[in-house]
Specification:
The chain is an all-alpha fold. The protein has 2 domains: about 1-95, no CATH class; about 120-160. About 60% of the residues lie in helices and about 0% in strands. It is built from 8 helices and no strands. Helix 5 crosses helix 6 (about 75-95). The longest helix is centred in the C-terminal third of the chain and has 28 residues, at about 120-145. The chain is flat and about 75 Å long.
Length: about 160
């Protein structure tokens, strides 16, 4: 996403607040604090309201059901979401060329060295975690299926009957 967002003047880290903006704009604006540059931070605060959050969904539904015929309502709803995204992109391009000139901070993600696990470490993990849980659960299920407390006269001691 970094390459695509850099074309409209944002860094790759901007995708997180943008996606959160489709759920709710308030936490999305708060998520802009994670952006490293002040330029990206302010620019994303201005762009998040263009994402159609769930609070806008009820307004869209009311207006669409009031003004459009039933067979076009789904298309209009998708169109409103797409229109918000397109307006956000156009506004980002406008901001990139006027108030927030300059390039966004490059998105650099450091990943650890990934190695193929050894057979010994995989076996130890299986024995420590999965085997013990599966073994104990199997014993409990076997015990409950095999032994019936009513067959041994234990029900009188365990359950008080009136």
């Amino acid at each position: 996403m970094d390459r695509l967002l850099r074309k409209i003047g944002l860094s790759g880290r901007s995708i997180v607040p943008m996606l959160i903006g489709f759920g709710c704009s308030v936490p999305a604006i708060m998520a802009t604090r994670t952006l490293s540059s002040e330029r990206d931070h302010k620019m994303m605060i201005l762009l998040v309201p263009f994402m159609s959050c769930t609070a806008k969904l009820s307004i869209y539904t009311l207006m669409i059901s009031a003004f459009f015929p039933r067979k076009y309502q789904a298309l209009i709803m998708v169109g409103l979401y797409a229109l918000g995204i397109v307006c956000g992109i156009l506004y980002a391009l406008l901001l990139k060329g006027t108030k927030y000139k300059g390039s966004p901070v490059p998105f650099v993600m450091e990943l650890p060295n990934y190695r193929f696990p050894s057979a010994k470490s995989v076996w130890q993990l299986i024995i420590e975690k999965a085997f013990t849980i599966i073994f104990v659960a199997s014993l409990v299920i076997w015990f409950l299926q095999t032994f019936d407390i009513r067959a041994y006269g234990l029900q009188n001691r365990c359950i008080k009957q009136p």
